Amino acid sequence: MLRNILQAVALVAMLGFLVPVSGAPAAGSNGLVLPTLAPMLEKTTPAVVNISTRGKVVVRDPFFDDPFFRRFFDVPEQRRERRISGLGSGVIVDAKDGYIVTNSHVIDKADDIVVTLENGQRFNANVIGKDPGADIAVIQIDAEHLTEIPLGDSDHLRQGDFVVAIGNPFGLGQTVTSGIVSALGRSGLGIESYEDFIQTDASINPGNSGGALVNLRGELIGINTAIYGSGGGNIGIGFAIPVNMARQIITQLVEHGEVRRGRLGFVVQDLTPELAEAFGVARKKGVVVARVEAKSPAQKAGVKVGDVIIAVNGREVDSSTQVRNEIGLLRVGSKVNIEVLRDGKTHQLTASVGKHTTYTVSGKSLNEKLAGAKLSEVQEDPSRRAAAGIEVVEARGRAAAAGLRKGDIIISVNRTRVKTIQDMKSAIKKNPDALLLNIQREARGLFILIR
Known about the structure:
This protein is α+β, with helices and mostly antiparallel strands. The chain has helices at about 1-15, 40-45, 65-75, 105, 245-255, 275-280, 295-300, 320-330, 395-400, 420-430, and strands at about 50-60, 80-95, 100, 110-115, 120-125, 125-130, 135-140, 160-165, 175-185, 195-200, 210-215, 220-225, 240, 260-265, 265-270, 285-290, 310, 315, 335-340, 345-350, 355, 360, 375-380, 390-395, 410-415, 415, 435-440, 445-450. The strands form five sheets. The chain has a seven-stranded antiparallel sheet. Strand 17 and strand 18 (about 315) form a beta hairpin. The termini are far apart.
C-alpha cells in the first residue's frame, strides 16, 4: 500500500502539479502530504453557479395541426401550452457587473431564470444576449461580493493537459470531475453552427452544460456544452467551447445583445489530395476557394477562385470549418489577413469584413399561391441538418393555409431542385397553376401540392 502511494506521489510531482495542503498534512502514512486539487477548487468553485429555468412551449396536435384536415372539417387552429423546466450551469466572468456565461440552450425558451450560488444564495437573472450559432449566452444577476473566474488561453492547450469540469449534473448540486484534454479542434459534429470543440474525458453529464472547464491553475479554458452518446450520459467523450472563442462572443453579447457576424463573400471547400494535384499544390491540407461573390469584400481584396487558403490572421487553417469560424466571429469592419497559394506562389491579402445580410423576398412576388410567405436563400447547415434551399421565414395567410410553416425549407418546386430564388422562379414558370413543393421540416420531408 505504501509503495503504491509513493509511486502515485512521485508521478504527480514529476508532472508538476503537486499541491501541498495548508495546515496539518492530509491523512497518509508517515505524515506524507498527498496531492490534492482542493486549494485550487476552493478559489474556483464559487465562480460556478447552478441555473434553473422555467418556461412554456406551444404543443401542437399533429392530427389537428394539418391545415387540410382543419379546412375539411372546419376545425379552428388549436394551440396548447405546456410548462417546461430545465437545469444547467454557468460561470461568473465579471463579478462587478454580475455577468454569467452559460450555454444558449440552457436558457432557451425560459421565462424565469434563477441562479444559485455555491453558498446557496438565489437570484433572478436577466438575459443580456444569446448566440445559438455558437451556443453561448450571457445572463446577469444583481448581487454583491461575487467571485469571478480568471480566463485562460485555450490556444495554448495541448492534447494530454489535465483539466477539471465543474457543474451541476442532474441537478445534484455543484460537482467536480477531472480528466485530460482528449483532442482539440473537434468540428463537423453537427452540434452547433460554429464548432471548434475541446474534447475531454472529464465526466460531463446533463446539467453540466454551461459549466466550467478549467486547467490546474483554476483558469477557465472552456465552457462545457455537449455529450457524445445516444444515452445522454457520460461515456468519456465530452465537448467544451474554447474560452478564446467564447471570449469574442461574450464581448459582443455584452455590447450589442447579439453577435454581429461578418462575411467576406466566398465559398470554400476542403483541399483533397485529388484537388491538390489538380491545382499543382504540394500541400495536402488547406482550403480551396470555390466561388467568389461579385462586389464582395473577398473580391475587392483580390481573392480568386482556385486560391488555396493556408492561413487566416496568421493562424494556419486545414479545413473550411476553421475558415468559417475565424471569419464568422470577427466584427464587421475589422481587417482580416488571408494567406493564399496561387500558381505556386504565396500571396498576402487583406480584406475588410462585411455585414452578413439575408436576402428575403415576398412569396407573392413569385406566385399568388405563396402570398403571405417570406422566403430566403439558405446554405447547407449541418448543425440544423438542413440542406441548401429556400427557407420560409414567415408563413401567414394563403401560404399558411396551404400548409407552409416558418422554418420549412423548400428543396424542390415542380420536381426541380432549387437552391436560389432564381431557381424557384424558373421552376414555377414550368407550371404556375399548380405548385408541387418538396419540403424539409426539421428531420422529416413531405410534399405539399398547392393548386
